[in-house]
């Protein structure tokens, strides 16, 4: 208990007096527990999305209702994919900006990332609306259930990412995100890039593979 | 010393890094490369009879392009190339486990032999 209090006080002192310094992590691995924890979480997410993609592959041939070829709008989804890909660039530039102590650029790049993510989500909502109008509801066929579950889960991940990005902007505006806490931005960045990586897979397997 | 976007970020300033993180220019070039690969992916849909991916080669070509994009984001944007190898092993443990488990599931359902479904 006393050790935890001392550690908290030392972090507070670092916040107040050493904005450019990084806090050393006294872990066996030399990597902070939060960063290692995020990578472990991402590794477990491979199993979650692997399961959803496998289910989609098993059920992609509908027994009733519209087929993927009939309803997918590849040019539209390609544009959405491009938007999400570019959000990975703005995210890595945001991480780079905080590592350099440039808070203004950090907020610009994080804001751009959130905006691109929101554009992607808006595109997904539009796509779902069109599909439902064309007769592909969640329970129309085994294909539709697998498709909406997979892409819907991904969309929820993107939405959570946007909430985390907006939280970072708020923290930065309140001055609670000094350079030595750049790891916080890096960890949110890892999550965001993973969401992009998953979409790279979904775009190829679900939309492009004939 | 203030770092600019033209300077790499020293590993000593970073958590768990063994190499300096790249300059911003490297990230922009990586994004352009990823965009180019995405264009090639879309071309497989727009021009299905193009000689490189005609004759049932479209799925292997798409899988290769997808893997190139996947590992580029992983190593450059997510900094696996610059961080301690432990993080790579942690992530690969989940990835390899997922691939093995779900390949087994797909094989159980005979997805590689669609004609066997009857």
UniProtKB/TrEMBL annotation, chain A:
GO molecular function annotation: cytochrome-c oxidase activity
Protein species of origin: freshwater metagenome
Keywords: Cell membrane, Membrane, Transmembrane, Transmembrane helix
Any single Pfam family the record assigns to this protein: COX3
Signal peptide: none
Residues that span the membrane, as ranges: 39-59, 79-99, 106-126, 146-173, 185-209
Species lineage: unclassified sequences, metagenomes, ecological metagenomes
PANTHER family xrefs: CYTOCHROME BO(3) UBIQUINOL OXIDASE SUBUNIT 3, CYTOCHROME C OXIDASE SUBUNIT III
Main location: membrane
Protein name according to UniProt: Unannotated protein
GO terms of biological process kind: aerobic electron transport chain
Subcellular location: Cell membrane
Entries under InterPro entries matching the protein: Cyt_c/ubiquinol_Oxase_su3, Cyt_c_oxidase-like_su3, Cyt_c_oxidase_su3-like_sf, Cyt_c_oxidase_su3_a-hlx
Family as reported in the entry's similarity comment: Belongs to the cytochrome c oxidase subunit 3 family.
Residue ranges occupied by any Heme-copper oxidase subunit III family profile domain in the UniProt entry: 1-210
A GO cellular component entry from the record: plasma membrane
Membrane topology field: Multi-pass membrane protein
From TrEMBL, chain B:
Parts forming coiled coils: none
A family per Pfam: COX4_pro
Membrane topology per record: Multi-pass membrane protein
Transmembrane domains' residue ranges: 26-45, 57-77, 89-113
InterPro entries referenced in this protein's UniProt entry, alphabetically: Cyt_c_oxidase_su4_prok
GO CC term, one of those recorded: plasma membrane
Compartments (UniProt record): Cell membrane
Keywords per UniProt: Cell membrane, Membrane, Transmembrane, Transmembrane helix
Protein name: Unannotated protein
Source species of the chain: freshwater metagenome
């Amino acid at each position: 208990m006393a050790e935890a209090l001392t550690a908290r006080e030392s972090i507070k002192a670092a916040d107040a007096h050493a904005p450019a310094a990084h806090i050393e992590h006294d872990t066996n691995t030399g990597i902070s527990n939060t960063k290692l924890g995020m990578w472990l979480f991402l590794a477990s997410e491979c199993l979650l999305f692997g399961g959803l993609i496998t289910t989609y592959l098993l059920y992609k041939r509908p027994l009733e209702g519209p087929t993927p070829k009939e309803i997918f709008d590849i040019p539209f989804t390609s544009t959405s994919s491009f938007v999400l890909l570019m959000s990975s660039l703005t995210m890595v530039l945001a991480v780079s900006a905080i590592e350099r102590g440039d808070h203004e650029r950090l907020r610009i790049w994080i804001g751009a990332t959130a905006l691109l993510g929101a554009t992607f989500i808006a595109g997904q909502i539009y796509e779902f609306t069109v599909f439902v109008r064309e007769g592909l509801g969640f329970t129309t066929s085994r294909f539709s259930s697998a498709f909406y579950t997979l892409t819907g889960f991904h969309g929820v991940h993107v939405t959570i990412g946007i909430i985390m990005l907006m939280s970072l902007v708020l923290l930065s505006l309140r001055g609670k995100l000094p350079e030595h806490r750049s790891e916080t931005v890096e960890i949110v960045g890892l999550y965001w890039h993973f969401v992009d990586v998953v979409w790279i897979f979904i775009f190829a397997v679900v939309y492009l593979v004939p | 010393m203030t770092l600019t976007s033209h300077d790499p970020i020293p590993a000593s300033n970073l958590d768990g890094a063994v190499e300096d993180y790249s300059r911003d220019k490297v990230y922009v070039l990586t994004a352009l490369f990823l965009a180019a690969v995405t264009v090639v992916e879309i071309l497989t849909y727009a021009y299905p009879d193009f000689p490189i991916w005609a004759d049932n080669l479209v799925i292997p070509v798409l899988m290769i392009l997808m893997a190139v994009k996947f590992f580029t984001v992983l190593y450059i944007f997510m900094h696996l190339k610059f961080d301690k190898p432990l993080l790579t092993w942690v992530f690969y443990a989940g990835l390899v486990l997922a691939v093995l488990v779900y390949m087994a599931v797909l094989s159980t359902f005979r997805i590689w032999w669609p004609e066997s479904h009857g």
